[in-house]
Amino acid sequence: MTSATDPHPHPTVTATRVPPRAPSEVPPPTPPDKTPRWSPPALIAILITAAVLYSWNLSGSSLNSFYSAAVLSGTESWKAWFFGSLDAGNFLTVDKPPFALMVMGLSCRIFGYGTWQMMLPMVLVALATIWIVHSSVKRVWGHGAATVAALVLALTPITVAINRDNNPDTLLVFLMAGGAALALRAVHNGRLLPLVGSAVCFGLAFNTKMLQGYIALPAVFAVYLYAAKPKLVKRIVNLLIAGAALAVSSFWWAAAVSLVPADERPYIGGSTDGTAWDLIMGYNGLGRILGGEGNGGGGGGGGGGFSGTAGIGRLFNDILGGQISWLIPFAALACIGGLVLCGRAPRTDLTRAALLLWGGWTALHYLTFAMAEGTMHPYYTTALAPGIAALCGGGGVMLLRAFRADKRWAWVLPVGLAVTAVWAVVLLRRASGWNTWLWPAITVVMALAIVGLLVFRSASGNRLRLLAASVVAAIVAAVAGPAAYAWSVPSGSGAGMGGTNPTAGPSTGSGFGGGPGGGGGGRGGFGGGRMPDGGRQQNGQNSQANGQTDGQAGQQGGFPGGPQEAQNGQNGQAPGGTGETGGTPPNGAGETGGTTPGGTGTSTGTSGTPGGMGGGGFGGGGMGGGATNELITYLKKHQDGAKWLLAVSSSQSAAQLILSSGEPVISMWGWSGSDKAMTLAKLKELVKNGELHYIQIGGGGMGGGPGGGSDVSSAVTEWVQKNGTAVKESEYSTNSSSSSSSSSSSSSQSNQSTIYRLDASDVS
Questions:
Q1: pTM of this prediction?
Q2: CA-based, 20 to 30 A from 715: which of 31, 225, 396, 639?
Q3: Which residues, 6+ apart, have CB-to-CB distance to 267 below 8 Å?
């Protein structure tokens, strides 16, 4: 027979030879090698359900235009693909390492550019994450626990939301889960190779989202150091080797970037000096935890706006509670209870090692996200899901076995289930008027399930089926709330989601824009659809601005190599904004979501002329990145061989124009407005060399938006206005009179944007 503490076969020990121990001290046996008939179909059903949730109506959902533009640029330039450049001309990169963009970019190079082509690898790795967690839990606790873990992971609301988006977190979680699973295998068999594989996975996670990929690493290495089979010295040597593999797999990209001269590489977005090392330590490093470095400051800064004030209870607040917290109380109870049940098991006990690893994973992520005072988007919490799932599955099975075997434990599982149901009711009642039948149903089903567990606790024979039915009913009641939130994303039955700040379920929070986690897309009316022409939103919410000019730019001018569905993936994002946040977060809020240059939180769109946050903008209607087909056509016609079509203030504006035109567009000040990518000397050089002719300033561009308050941007603005030739709207717009009227009506809210033409003769 085998056991969880000793997975190798050993002779059966009879009660006459060894005195029996109390049931609570007996480690749960590992299931027999023979797979139950129900297990494979159950896993397949969960994977199919997850595939539907992650891909249903995917072409109608709002992707993140920031990353979409970078992926498109990567299909047009291998240099842009390597650096993660926003534009194919390689002026500025996105504010993340490029590994996720590389994966999506390769898919689009093979299959063509479009929503499905971009999202195919992300959906596949999301399904692979479920399989990894299922396999890892099964190896320790058996098929039943693995099935529960897979179900919980698949139905985690924020995980469903982010897995339908092109943010890098889906790939990040896959790599971290793979690293954790390989580390557990190394603990089990004592071999070096799985440990090195684990380190490489975490290194690639670092190259997906930098220091966030390291959050669980202390728990993983600590568990190996404590519980692995080799002697202490050997364990330390193995960890040093793994550390070397971690360093190589983590820093190869930053080192390669450093070897390229600064004038031959794009400016690294998000950094203060154009280097990858500064991005690692600043904006994507301690800035996330402590604030600053383009991340806002304090709990009421970037983090406070998107996910509520920093504090130990943040993940249970109105914004994050419905996204991730449903099963956190049960997972905590299951972890603690499981560790107690392990008793005095040997140091190498695999069950205890798994509880420590997944428990450490969950605790480290929880504390990091709860206390972070920098930018904190709700979708970051998807990284908690594998740990919660593993603890609910493995620890839950241990509590069930103890519930049946020991009267002293007979109250723990029922209490855990009751707390789960009560918290689900609290979360559901926060969403006034949304699926009001659900919380009473959960209450009734969970109550009946607990009664069934108590009545049939000692059942045997045919009555075991009634106990099994009670267990199934309890699981159904526990996941019903998360499942409803999860299904609201692809079905559109909730408040929707948006590309830069995806969330699930109805609006219950008060982040930027009024929706969960900062008004995630649908809180402003997104969710992949388009607002009617002339749509208007106020009170700090974003305008969809005629559906990004009603999709016309995508139909006529953009998305090379991809179908119209690629444009649909961008609809619902305010031109020049992020499509996510009304009003302007402090310091731009950094991380892809939240900067609205010069935004007023109110905009009006007119047919064919995108209304945009900030009011100022192209053609008098849009701002920053929103441009009519007429203007794009004009800019292309008069591009005169320039590398870049236009230079604008922010990355949001540039991304929208890149997607609409298919041409490189310069973002001068990056995402948060703090990038020092453009200088007056560099601008003069570009103009003198004929690489750039058109620059947009004013309103949502320079002066009123990111970078607008700096000496550099002021100098650039002054020089352009003095030496450039303003492009009159009548030169490209057949609707200039109505546009001018619309512009005049909004002039009290923001300044008009203007496009200037500059030639080599204008450079003194």
A1: 0.81
A2: 639
A3: 91, 92, 93, 274, 670, 675, 676, 677
